[in-house]
Specification:
The complex is a heterodimer of chains A (316) and B (437). Chain A has 316 residues and is mostly helical. Chain A is built from 15 helices and no strands. The two termini of chain B are 31 Å apart. Mean pLDDT of chain B is 78; it is low at 426-435. The chains are: A mainly alpha (316), B mainly alpha (437).
Chain lengths: 316, 437
Amino acid sequence: MTWFIIFMGPIDPAARLLSEGQVRNSAEYTAAQQQLGLDQPPLQHYVEWMGNLLTFDLGQTWLLYQGSNVNALILDFLPRTLWLGFWSVLIAICIGVPLGFYAGMNSNTGADYAASLGGIVWRAMPNFWLAIMLLAVLGSSAAIIGIDYQNFIIPLDSLTGSPDMSQIGTVDGFLAATKKVLPAAIVLGSASMGNEMRIGRTAVLEVRNEDYIDFARAQGVSDRLIVWKHILRNALVPLVPIITSEAFLLIGGSVLVETVFSINGIGWLFYQAAIQGDLPLVGTLMYIFILMIVSINLIQDILYTIIDPRVGLEGN
Amino acid sequence: MSILGDFVVALPVGAGGAVAALTEFEAAIRAVPTLLSRETIPNQGYWDGSEWVGTFLNLRPGLAWGLRATLVYVYAFAIAAWVAAGYQLYRRVYRAANWTPRDDVIDRFRTHRWGIFGLFVVFMFVTMAVFAPALGPTTYEQNMRNSYSNEIQYFDTETDSVETVLVGQANRGSQSTGDNADRVLPMEYDNFGRFHPFGTLPTGRDLFTFIVVGSRISLVIGLLSVGLSALLASSLALTAAYYKGRVDLSTVLISDGVMAMPQLLLLIMLTSVLSGTWLGNIYSGGFLLALIFAFTGWTYMWRSLRGPALQVSERQWIDAARSFGQRPLVIMRRHMFPYITGYMLIYGSMTLGGAIISIAGLSYLGLGVAPPTPEWGRAINLGQDYVRTGSWHISLIPGLLITLVVTGFNALGDGIRDAIDPQSDAASNTAGRGGGA
């Protein structure tokens, strides 16, 4: 499908590669086509392309960072996106789930309504806009909250830009890279946060009304133990698919967020490749994204069986 | 009512006759002097040294514009109230049946405060889109598209006289680019006596007009895409539920295949690949966007329709209809379809919100709707560099509006869901998000 869009689409990659004058020169045009493998019959080309993808022989880029190896390029860009994705998932879980549980435990109070409303509005905000606003607030944070974010704990050279992944082993390097990616991660995790909160709240509410909670209470189990052992553990079950399905949003959102924060991740690479017409790179990145989604789905199934023993593997 | 015209223009084939008929219809409507046409309450006048000339009752332009905008909304809400009252009257007095199941749904919705809030916001948004030409303090034609072939008069304080200037030149004198002296904040007048309810863009154009026209584009694209995907999803769900077995399995496979591709990435890829072609030029790229949305988004709606459709297909009246030889298509349309329309409404409302976010996200990146046509995301992009300066309004206002409108659509979906199916808490997944934009 992706292959069809790229190679049968209206953009002629060979023409993009050459300048206007060179296109009219038919000899050079054929040479370029030959170099890109476009002179083969479509089916043969498709089979070869798929074969290359499956063996991770990703070839070379055409336009962006011309001639460099796609494998090396992706290995260079991928860690930053993974770092960003890791923090955004973590932040979303650490803020969204406890808030949702809190709202569920204190349902129909003022705090519950405030948290629910906040979650709904938070979910409806466009990521890219939130990113711009957050940057504006952080940029003048000294005036607004009295702390200069840029020089707080670890000084940064600028608020935007890519995290430095080479120094990640050291404490300072770790802190700097984390701090740099933190605002972007908050924005990227915002949608998931709202979702997790909402699902967490309903899950807690449902579990609280189960018979076995009443039974445990009748047996004289302490409230604290009921909450921690019986309610929270069971309420986690419906959260697993939500957390993993956020991968979808994270991958889509990474393009916009990385563009706003000018982080050189693969989302940004995808956007650059798409607007400049570097089609093989687009296709390869699409392939990688799909691979990531499929593997996350696999992880979800495994997690499910760990958290909820009732779900057997054959049930899926 | 030219939003109808927009709809027809957005449809590529077989619409030639309809366009002609509609333009005639539009001309006929235009000929009737309405309260809401711009000429009835003009707000574009100039100060001649002692009073405003050319505005309604010689009011200040801001007041005249405010009066017109208020009247538009009063008019819209009056119509809505009239329809609601008429329905109540019909239900109480004229309808033969005392009670129908749908009454319960409507009564439940009426007491659902969150849903009513959503309906209110969505109604405001739709009114904005429908009355776009009358609502703006200036028009898209005059202020943006042909700003150098229109001229306005203004009072020059230096020469103490009324001068004439091209709109394009006036725009250059009212640019909001940071802390410059000429910047125009919300609810302010610029140096040319023009009123800007939301201030101006960095290009000096009126932000309110930009947003109002952009809302129409978002709404048309959103409705088109949701309509198309609803058509696809419902027909596939009904066919699969009716025939079951292999047909069902193959639709599951197809939808899983489509779902495996991240929607926003596919959108970025397709809009950039197809941007120069004839398909990408219909309705400044909006039609293409709607198509892509429909073909990537139907899976989510199909997923939620499949369950109810399968349930309906098990009912006895389906067997009965089949036993006396009704054709499958008729059974699906007449005996199954009415039972899933409610679910279509829920998901339609939520995906519309998501589509609005996605369209804004794409135009923020510079893809999708082509530049001269206003789109909310582009306003955010234009104002991005000035958020921390004196021209903070350019990015802030469109973003807040998007948030409000999307919240409204989600709330409406919640309300409809609770009204149709009070027990369920379904539909709370990611449908309201435009693929992570």
